[in-house]
Amino acid sequence: MKFARLGPIGQETPTVFHEGRHYDLLTLTADIDGDFLASDGIERARVALEAGWLPEIPNADALRVGAPISRPSAVICIGMNYAAHAAESGSLPPEIPIIFLKTPNTVVGPNDSVEIPPGSTKTDWEVELGIVIGKRASYLDSPEDALEHVAGFVTANDVSERDFQMTVSGGQWSKGKCAPGFNPTGPWLVTPDEVDFQNLSLKSWVNGEIRQDSTTADQIFDVKFIIWHLSQYLALEPGDLVLTGTPEGVALSGRFPYLAAGDVCEIEIEGLGRQRQEFVAHEKAAQ
Fold this sequence. Notes:
Radius of gyration: 18 Å
Structural class: alpha+beta
Number of strands: 19
Helix content: 10-25%
Strand content: 25-35%
Number of helices: 5
Distance between the termini: 47 Å
């Protein structure tokens, strides 16, 4: 199943997307959030859709697309999870997962414009497979237990400011990861039964030119291992978002220019949908 949220910022309607049409979920839930996912909401939506109980949303194509999950309690990210990206970053492949955090308010719609922070000279793109947690995961016994705790998968852009991340970080990455809008997410949350999540094409473009072209088969740490590993150190709650790393082809490599005002970034993951963001100057940059 594919879930989405449509409408103005802060007023999104939860929907299920089926055979090219959006169906309203407001009779089942106020939003696609942790409470909905933890209360068997996906199965309840499946039953309601098959029974014909959900009204279709007219003119859905004309509505803004929001992130397919409401603001999560946490966004946990895995760094350098593709060997070629580690190499272009000047690092060896990690022996254990590298973890950093993004603030929940970075999560925005897949096509929302993104402001380049004041003082930024190195704003970068990163196409990433995102995992949405559906059931609390804490101290899992093995990676084979992980999928029981996954609600679905999303396309995500882990936008980064590399100077903030590397130069003025004090050794932590999150300064370069947490500007408002630095995590476009969606368009859909897709349930695991519809996703071959370890064999998905990931691509990104800037101004129509290809930048990244890889597959999740090249991950160093796979989805199951990531969820199990994280659960040994923190509790993943329903609705939380886990980003699983980006492949090679970012501006940090030195092969491409960083993003500037007016640039358009597009990213796509096979079966999970495509995004498009225009990058704009922050109003303070003009002062």
